[in-house]
Design goal:
- The protein is an alpha/beta fold.
- Helices cover 40% and strands 15% of the residues.
- It has 22 helices and 17 strands.
- Helix 17 (397-412) packs across helix 21.
- The relative contact order is 0.11.
- Bound molecules: cobalamin and iron/sulfur cluster.
- Cobalamin binds next to helix 1, helix 2, strand 4, strand 5 and helix 5.
- The site of cobalamin (B12) has 39 residues, from helix 1, helix 2, strand 4, strand 5 and helix 5.
Length: 492
Amino acid sequence: MRVLLVHPSPLMYSELYLRLEPLGLERVAAAIRAAGHEVRLLDLQIFSHADYWRELETFAPQAVGFSVNYLANVPEVVDLAKETKAKRREAFVFVGGHSASFVAAEFLEHAEGAIDCIVRGEGEVIAPRVLEAIGDPKLDTLPGVVTPTGAGPSPTLLDNLDLHLPARDLGRKRHKYFIGVLDPCASVEFTRGCPWDCSFCSAWTFYGRSYRKGTPEAAGEDLARIREPNVFIVDDVAFIHAEHGDAIASEIERRRIRKQYYLETRCDVLIKNQELFARWKRLGLFYMFLGIEALDEDALKAHRKRVTLNENLRALEIARSLGLTVAINIIADPSWDEARFAAVRDWALTVPEVVHLTVATPYPGTELWLTESRQLTSRDYRLFDVQHAVLPTQLPLKRFYELLVNTQSVLNRKHLGWGALKLYGGAALRAASRGQTNYLRMLWKFSSVYNTERQYADHLKPVRYEMRPPRPLLGSKPSKQELYIHMPTPVH
Ligand code: B12
Ligand code: SF4
């Protein structure tokens, strides 16, 4: 069967700071290809809708699969599915991915028959079975599958992460993938899931709070296949278990692989595994993202981060002493006033790290979605991208965006524009001499992507697809069925 797999367009964040390969879709592609199908992959972060329609005509796929990891992409994919069915009625349309899993039933409703099924949870095992079951009324009895007529049992976890290494060869224009000065950049996955349970995050609810590791040999094998000199490690929290990180490091040394790496981790993990991170620094670790989230203990508790402010500050010192480029994130609450923005800006200007602000957003899949007591001001999927405020702002909305954008812009002076060239000009020019200009081009783009008018105007757009409101909990605790995609398995 001819199968076309599609990743939707970029959101604000990826219009500017980075653009990365759709790793999940590449893994699903590998599994589908191993089952004997002819697979193509189109990434709309790089290609246009016109390219998609052309591909639909020339490749004439019998099945089209969309990946929806981001809620903000739901309307785009609903519209693409509707038009796909209008143009090729015989094509089977299916959708998978992180966010699609949490809003499966309403997604199907919006599509009004244009989507044949949503595949909840991990796609590697189930996607080939879905293709096999096209036309069979038993399709909706498969684990994780939801159709307009029914839903199968909860999805099952892949028990061996080493299987289905990403089909990177299906990517086109791979030179477009980058993160900051790591240009071009590929992605890898060493582990999957997260054992913590922060209230604003859906990584743990998706994977049933499980944490699985691929073998160091498979990690080495996958890295050895990568042509790009830079690698983004997509793990939610990198190197939770030091021995696993050490074993991968040994494998890299044994294979004499030399790359530069970006990873994301927690402050307490960095503190606990300092030696390991120092070893990775020697291996090429260049850029690290630390989820700081808040500058006061109360907010850290509300996010259920399970770290203290002191630990966060200590981790920053450790990262500095290792000589790493560090980015951190602070969650801006819609209740912030002028003084709060000023305090965060003043603090951020005293630290050398790259500081990003995201807006506190309760989205389906997070515990916050079920427990937040404030009323949503919008249920437009497109605004659920942690760059827009969907809860009532204490300041007038426009003023909130003004402060958000201005604060971010002041903080960005360190690492965008001329400030960045001072730091990374050499590397940027070397990349440009090889034809890689993603980084150079992003340096002066900030105000065309992030600006008060644009963000405010996004609220005024007519809403065609509205998210279902959360069910009021009325004091009860969310049930497992409400919280999780993959059900947690009891620990023996
Ligand atoms: C790496 C990553 C990124 C990368 C981009 C990766 C990419 N090109 O897609 C970067 C850093 C750019 C990024 C940015 C953002 N991210 Co992000 N990201 C992740 C992260 C940590 C891992 C994703 C990953 O690669 N996993 C590994 C692969 C193998 O898994 P996967 O993609 O989920 O795919 C599997 C299944 O979902 C399924 N599947 C996927 N697609 C399909 C398709 C079909 C047809 C089928 C059958 C199955 C299927 O099968 C796959 C294999 O099992 C997730 C957290 C997480 N654990 O999922 C957050 C996450 C997806 N990101 C999130 C957010 C909020 C963002 C931003 C909006 C944040 C921001 N600061 O602005 C931006 C927006 C980016 C954009 N689209 O433009 C949220 C999503 C929230 C939501 N519900 O919308 C998540 C869940 C993190 C969180 N803490 O809650 N992100
Ligand atoms: S924010 Fe990080 S540590 Fe917290 S649950 Fe999500 S992935 Fe885990």
